[in-house]
Amino acid sequence: MMMITNKAIYFDMDGTIANLYGVNGWLDMIIARETTPYTNAIPMIKMNVLARLLNKLQRNGYTIGIVSWLPKNSTEEYDERVKVAKINWLKTHLKNVKFDEIKIVPYGTPKETVVRFPNGILFDDEEPNRTNWIGTAYDVDNIIEILKGVA
After folding, report:
1. What's the pLDDT tens digit per position in 25-44?
2. Starting from the edge strand earliest in sequence, which strands make up the sheet with 136-138, in order?
């Protein structure tokens, strides 16, 4: 049975909190099955501020999660390396956040179908993901301000 709650906040990674698309040559590297863009992506927001907000929200009963896609046209072996790279990125840039849920799923997977609380909040740079989300979805603008309003 799926629990319904809106006390959950999920983040996409690429283009939302990690500037994958700002890594010079990112697409060529992904086509070449390199993980460099995933490890070298710089944060798109102030991570220390985000970490404090997420920890406060968790103390207030929110589930905090990641729901991120793997690359298009990938292989099982490359997907595993990308998963490791994404998790290491989170451990590097949000090391003080203990995520309740991390879903790194095949490209194109409807994100609302793989998380425990699809009625929650989603931050995602892809408009179709926001449109299909069951709860409330936001673009990447003003993440900190929106979270301050929730907290």
Report:
1. 999 999 999 999 999 999 99
2. 101-105, 63-69, 8-11, 121-123, 136-138
**102 Ramachandran zone, left/alpha/beta (phi>0; psi -120 to 50):** beta
Q: Looking at residue 23, which CATH number applies to its domain?
A: 3.40.50.1000
Q: Between vectors from CA 36 to CA 18 and to CA 44, what angle results, nearest 5°? A: 15
Amino acid symbol at 133: W
Percent composition of the chain: helix, strand, coil (DSSP 3-state, to 5): 40, 15, 40
CA distances (Å), 2 to each of 5, 90, 111, in order? 10, 27, 15
69 is written with which tokens? 């896609």
The proportion of the chain whose per-residue pLDDT surpasses 90, expressed as a percent, equals 95
Question: What is the total count of domains within the chain?
Answer: 1
Q: For 116, which DSSP code?
A: S
Element holding 88 (H helix, E strand): helix 76-93
Residue 15 lies in a domain: yes
Stated pTM of the model: 0.94
Structural domain including 112 reads 8-150
* 25 domain-assigned: yes
Phi first, then psi: give them for residue 123, nearest 5 degrees: -110, 120
